Amino acid sequence: MIAIVDIAALLSTKADSPDAKKSKPNPDIILATLDKLVTRPEETLMLGDTPYDISATGKAGVGVIALRRLHR
């Protein structure tokens, strides 16, 4: 998604699969990102494009904006 919307240059912090023990819908990657950003869940908003994103953000206590991806 980052490449599709061409925003990589705007991001200063990221978390990848090595930062999480379990993948989404487990919230590990979101919690790892919060740790790196030194921010609280209630101060955070995530853009998500899968049901797994929505589930994981809810478990982490993070707000989410759901994006619908159109398949061609």
Structural notes for this entry:
The protein has 72 residues and is α+β, with helices and mostly antiparallel strands. It has one domain: Rossmann fold (3-Layer(aba) Sandwich), CATH 3.40.50. It has three helices and two strands; from the N terminus they run ααβαβ. The longest helix has 10 residues, at 28-37. The mean pLDDT is 91.
In short:
Helices cover 33% and strands 11% of the residues. By secondary structure, the protein is α+β, with helices and mostly antiparallel strands.
Topology (SSEs and partners):
Elements: H1 2-5, H2 28-37, E1 45-48, H3 51-60, E2 63-66
Parallel strand pairs: 1-2
Q: Please name the fourth-level CATH homologous superfamily.
A: HAD superfamily/HAD-like
Spatial shape? globular
Give the mean pLDDT.
Answer: 91
- Quote the distance from N terminus to C terminus: 15 Å
CATH class: Alpha Beta
**CATH architecture assignment name:** 3-Layer(aba) Sandwich
Number of strands: 2
Strand content: 5-15%
Per DSSP, the total helix count is 3
Q: Which regions contain 5 or more consecutive residues with pLDDT less than 50?
A: none
What is the domain tally?
A: 1
Give the biggest sheet.
2 strands, parallel
